[in-house]
Amino acid sequence: MENVLLDERKQVSLRLMSEDDVLSEVEPDAVPNEVRNWLSMTFTRSVSNMKKKAEEKPKFKSVAQAIRAGIMVDRMLRRMSSSLESNVPAQVSKVLKTLNDWNFEVFAMNECSEGQALRYLGFELMQKFNILSKFKIQNLVMQNFLEAVEAGYSKYNNPYHNLIHATDVLQTTYHILNNAGLMSWLSSIEIFATFVSAIIHDYEHTGTTNNFHMQTRSEIALVYNDRAILENYHISATFRLMLNDSYNIIQELTREEFKEFRHLVIEMVLATDMSFHFTQLKTVKNMISLNETIDKPKALSLVLHCADISHPSKNWPLHEKWTNLLVEEFFSQGDKEKELGLPFSPLCDRNNTPIAQSQIGFINFIVEPSLNVMGDMIDKIFDQILSEEQSRTSKSDINDSSSTSESIKKKPIERPWAQHLTENKAKWQILAEEEKKKKEQENSEQIAETKNEDKKNGDN
């Protein structure tokens, strides 16, 4: 037993060393210390059987009554469905038609929906892929669930981690999978779990980091023992929400469906913990290089993680707006840390944070490598789909095989993020120079002011 424990500790130590090695490759002058500390603290882990009771079924006096009741319920549900669809505002419908755009106007969507972007997009995607019908989810229950999740995102009035961010991540996740032609690769339960994971991945986020919860010894830090604190909370709070029948969108799942759904949601949302970033990338890189079959839960986890950090890969107006919101949330945490007498977390000091440099570091060392690995992973998955399709069709009809394979080969694998990353980085580099000059001027003025004060004191 002692040998086993020693071996486990050795494996953990090796993983942490591997993560630190990635950042050790960063040249000392490549980023300021503030940015380097933030990358290290945020994206590494450096040391610093459920049984559902069968519901009691109504008793009918006759088969005829049962049939009539079934018809009546069906009519009620149809009326409810058409009512929900007809209540979608015209401007929301217009924005939803651009669902396949990489630069989806999520802020415009939220504005024209009067702060209800998540419920409209969530419902749209669930209907688009026939999730409600497939898993016998009542429209009203889905609507209740989405409204409750929106309320949870609004609990702390966060500038960044709010329902608009959840909507953005949901749309980006959909875009990545759909535009790569991977929806047919997924089963209905996998699509359902993926959408729900994107919807709830930051549910009831406190607007502060995991490190802040550890430093303040918060209740949820104690509950989750400092391990993926917020991510564990988002998952747990969601499943507790669904204990209420009014919000229970999974009550009709079979035992096996529930097991798979829960496993996927847990794995995907936990993978949004930024401290697992380098481990996650290394795992996927190994699957690609070793020519292994891509594991679906790990693939979906990387897609969600990339969607979660994707705003630097959108056009400049979207990226700049998201950056300003995130920085304000960081600064708000810094203000709390100052009040509590705690040291500032990286990038949380509103008077001493190099915003432009932080974004350059974020793009260079986190976002761009992640999206590149994800793109390579999608290429690999597509090769697997093509190979399987060729294998199936060649056994039945060689002519059909040729036409099917040719159509698959012609499917382009787009990487719409590449150009935006290059353009946004160039913009930040210009701003970084301005930032540097401003800081130098402030330092010069401060030195001059100190000299004048010293001179006055000497004269006196």
Describe the structure.
By secondary structure, the chain is mainly alpha-helical. Helix content is 70%, strand content 0%. It has helices at residues 2-24, 33-43, 63-86, 90-96, 106-112, 117-128, 131-134, 139-153, 163-179, 188-200, 210-216, 219-223, 229-241, 255-270, 277-289, 296-308, 316-340, 355-396, 398-409, 417-459. Helix 9 crosses helix 16, helix 15 (277-289) runs parallel beside helix 18 (355-396) and helix 16 runs antiparallel to helix 18. It is globular, with a radius of gyration of 26 Å. Residues 47-64, 77-83 and 401-408 have low confidence and may be disordered.
Write a short abstract of this structure.
This protein has helices spanning 2-24, 33-43, 63-86, 90-96, 106-112, 117-128, 131-134, 139-153, 163-179, 188-200, 210-216, 219-223, 229-241, 255-270, 277-289, 296-308, 316-340, 355-396, 398-409, 417-459.
